[in-house]
Design brief:
Elements lengths: L1 H5 L12 E2 L19 E7 L15 H14 L3 E7 L3 E7 L3 H20 L23 E5 L3 H17 L4 H6 L7 E2 L2 E2 L5
Antiparallel strand pairs: 1-5, 2-4, 2-5, 3-4, 6-7
Helix pairs in contact: 2-3
Length: 194
């Protein structure tokens, strides 16, 4: 999985100090998660066991996960720029008001989604399967500070590409054939072309 983390747009040795969690956290002592309330934050939550009936895109969970993400963001004052549910992982591009809000948002988001998907309740964990070492999530949430401008545009395009990939649409092949993708949100069409 380390190669996946390095494939994220804008991720290189220079930006590694602005990253935390995911595969970067394995076999290392705890370090403080970099947070910058003036910049965007790319968050990745990955769950290898989120397949089949436990997929985040399963019809029983998809709308609940979406509603929970938006509700939790509003609760902690987190501005949600982009959000992609890919089935076994989530990508969020957000702006957090403070370190405390970021920590509480991540904690509530990870715990709440795990409860929604597995049916577990606080204080009553589900029994673990033999192949499951940890809980629902593979590890710590991966976060990276994203500078507004070119870095932000690259991550935003990456998230949109993940949405097409999750839907089984061959985005790169369509673009190679000359198709142009227009992103339309609540504010209308965006100028970006993934």
């Amino acid at each position: 999985m380390a190669s996946h983390q390095l494939a994220l747009p804008g991720f290189n040795k220079k930006t590694a100090s602005a990253s935390h969690g995911g595969d970067l956290a394995q076999s290392k002592r705890k370090t403080r998660r970099p947070i910058d309330p003036k910049q965007a934050l790319h968050i990745v939550l990955r769950a290898s066991i989120a397949r089949g009936a436990r997929s985040l895109l399963h019809p029983n969970h998809c709308n609940h996960v979406d509603t929970f993400v938006h509700k939790t963001a509003r609760k902690w004052g987190v501005r949600l720029y982009r959000y992609a549910n890919v089935g076994n992982h989530l990508h969020l591009l957000v702006k957090v008001p403070s370190r405390t809000a970021a920590q509480r948002f991540l904690k509530e988001l990870a715990g709440g989604i795990a409860q929604l998907v597995t049916g577990a309740q606080k204080g009553r964990a589900l029994p673990r399967k033999a192949d499951q070492e940890r809980g629902f999530w593979d590890g710590l949430a991966f976060t990276r500070i994203v500078q507004f401008g070119r870095d932000y545009a690259g991550v935003a395009r990456y998230l949109v590409g993940n949405l097409f990939e999750a839907a089984g649409i061959p985005l790169k092949r369509l673009q190679a054939q000359g198709y142009r993708i227009q992103i339309v949100g609540r504010a209308g069409p965006s100028a970006q072309n993934p």
